[in-house]
Amino acid sequence: MLNNEYLIKIEEFFLNDLKKINKPKIIEFGVRFGLSTKKIIKICEKNQGFLHSIDIDDCSEVSESKCWKFYKTRDDNFEYLDALLPKNVDLIYLDSLHEAEHVKKIFYHYYPLLKVGGIFVFDDISWLPYLKNKKRNNFNCEINNLEIFNKILEIKSENEDLLDLFFSFKGSGAAKIKKLSDKNLNQPLSLKSRKYSFKNTIRKVIKLLT
After folding, report:
1. Taking the complete model, does pTM exceed 0.85, yes or no?
2. How far is 127 from 138, CA to CA, in rounded Å?
3. Which of 27, 44, 112, 142 is most exposed by smallest CB count within 10 Å?
4. pLDDT category, 35, cuts 50, 70, 90?
C-alpha cells in the first residue's frame, strides 16, 4: 500500500514532467529498493536519457540498463562524486538521509549542477502522517520531516527571485525547486515569524473579547 502511494506521488509530482524531456540527465541520491530508480530508468530508455544513482548500500543489481550508472558511496563524498557526475542536469532527486542539515548540505553542493529550468526534488517533507495518533505515528519522522520542511522554506525565503518552490502532501510528501537563474544562492536564515510577538498576543486577546 505504501509503495503504491509513493509511486503515485512521484509519478504525479515530477515523473510526468520528466517524460516530456528529450535526453534527460538525472542524478538520484538514495536507491534502497529501486522503486524510483526503475521508473526513471524506463523514462531514460524511452527518451535517450541517463540516470546516475548514489547509495551507501550496494544497489547495483537493481537494473542492468545501459542508461544507468550506480555509485556505492555517501552522497556527501564530494571529492569523489564531483569528478563523476554530469553538469547541466535536468533533475536531481534527493531521498537519502532525512535530516535537515544534511539535506541543506547536499542541496547547496549539487544545486549548481542543475541547468536553468531544471528541478531539485526532496522526498519526505511532510510531518502530518507521522503526528501522534495518525496512521504512521512516528516521533523521529515527524520531527525530521518538519525540520526539513522548514529548512526548505528558509531557502526559498532568502532566494525569492532565484527559484520556484512547490509542495506535494501526498503520503510522506515531497518538495520541488525549479532553478530560475545561474546566480549563486544565498544561505538560508531562520524565518522571523511574528506568531509569538506582543502584537499578536494583543490581537488574540482582542479576538477573545469581541
Report:
1. yes
2. 9
3. 112
4. very high
89 bridge partner residues: 114
Number of other residues whose CB lies within 10 A of the CB of residue 187: 11
| Cβ–Cβ under 8 Å, residues 67 and 39 | no
Residue-by-residue DSSP string for the chain: -HHHHHHHHHIIIIIHHHTT-SS-EEEEE--TT-HHHHHHHHHHHHHT-EEEEEESS--TTS---TTEEEEES-TT-HHHHHTTS-SSEEEEEE-S---HHHHHHHHHHHGGGEEEEEEEEEE----GGGSTTSTT--HHHHHHHHHHHHHHHHHHHT-TTTEEEEEE-STT-EEEEEE--SSPPPPP------TTSHHHHHHHHHHHH-
CB neighbour list of residue 197: distance below 8 Å, 6 or more residues apart: none
CA 105-178-145 angle, 5° bins: 50
Q: What is the pLDDT of residues 37-96, one digit of tens each?
A: 999 999 999 999 999 999 999 999 999 999 999 999 999 999 999 999 999 999 999 999
Burial 103-123 (b: 16+ CB within 10 A, else e): bbebbeebbebbeeebbbbbb
Model pLDDT, residue 161: 97
